[in-house]
Design goal:
Number of strands: 3
Largest sheet: 3 strands, mixed
Strand order of the largest sheet: 2-1-3
Strand content: under 5%
Order of helices and strands: EHHEHHHEHHHHH
Structural class: mainly alpha
Mean pLDDT: 86
Radius of gyration: 21 Å
Distance between the termini: 59 Å
Shape: globular
Helix content: over 70%
Length: 311
């Protein structure tokens, strides 16, 4: 069936970031540097985990998947943003916009589920250390990742199919630098009640429930530490959980800032700035957080450099 039967809009216009034209070049260079740092940093994490046998543990198994997700997540929006800034072309085809929504939701949800799996791994490591290898078996790790993918694909597919049913007449201007689902719903000429209801329902499953699971995991970890408080135990817990907690704070902090404190209908600048935080800044910072705060990663990186120097 032809798209024209459903919608008169063949493309959308992305207004981009709220920056002055004379500053476009500076911001373009900045975002390019951030994107390249994200890609190279996360690929380096995947490479180190692959090469160093000491990192073949459940925690680093999940971290490698998180690094891959972060690279993919940034790649959904950053290349199009950079191309638009360089060419001064702000259009995106209807099909490209729908595809961007799908992959953005899929990878964003996947991030949430992977962070939850990592929190469970840390809970088992600290609260049940003697049974860690038994509980966190290779089979369970693979199962958690597969379930994360299935739930993320299903969630993104539901939103995308419901979005594809909507009609768009007249105005095709999106006050954003990518095809944001909420911005598209505001632009639609159709009734979006079902879409809004599904966003609330599915959002509980992919955002709220994982966040609560993470809080419960760290609640148990905190209770375990307090039962036998010691400086050594606290330091071990911080070294074990500090990196993960930092990433969780960045990820959910951006979501809370965007969805729990929404901007008014008159301005979308805050939404756009927060979107830059979780699409570009957070994925870029993750490699630094895990490498600078983690002695195993620093050790693996040192081994790789020494091997390269020898050759």
């Amino acid at each position: 069936m032809r798209r024209d039967n459903h919608s008169s809009v063949s493309e959308f216009i992305l207004l981009g970031l709220p920056i002055r034209p004379k500053e476009q070049g500076l911001y373009c260079a900045l975002f390019l540097a951030m994107y390249l740092t994200t890609v190279l940093g996360n690929l380096l994490i995947i490479l180190l985990i692959r090469l160093d046998s000491r990192l073949h543990t459940p925690m680093y198994f999940f971290l490698s998947h998180l690094a891959f997700t972060d690279v993919s997540f940034s790649s959904v929006t950053a290349p199009k943003l950079l191309m638009n800034m360089l060419t001064q072309s702000q259009s995106i085809p209807y099909a490209g916009c729908i595809s961007q929504v799908y992959f953005f939701l899929l990878l964003g949800d996947l991030d949430s589920f992977l962070l939850t799996s990592m929190a469970y791994d840390r809970y088992v490591a600290i609260c049940h250390p003697l049974h860690y290898t038994t509980i966190m078996s290779q089979r369970l790790c693979f199962l958690l990742v597969i379930v994360s993918w299935v739930l993320s694909v299903s969630s993104a597919l539901v939103h995308t199919l419901l979005l594809a049913r909507l009609s768009f007449y007249g105005d095709n201007t999106l006050p954003h630098f990518f095809c944001d689902l909420s911005a598209l719903l505001k632009l639609s000429s159709s009734d979006t009640t079902v879409n809004q209801l599904v966003i609330l329902t599915v959002g509980v499953v992919v955002i709220t429930v994982p966040f609560l699971c993470i809080l419960v995991s760290y609640g148990h970890i905190g209770a375990t530490i307090l039962r036998a408080p010691s400086m050594k135990g606290i330091c071990k817990a911080l070294s074990t959980c500090g990196s993960h907690l930092s990433v969780v704070s960045l990820y959910y902090g951006a979501i809370i800032g965007l969805y729990f404190y929404p901007s008014s209908n008159d301005t979308n600048e805050k939404d756009v700035i927060v979107a830059v935080m979780y699409t570009l800044v957070t994925p870029m910072l993750n490699p630094f957080i895990y490498s600078l705060r983690n002695k195993d990663m620093k050790g693996a990186l040192g081994n790789v450099f020494r091997t390269l120097v020898k050759h």
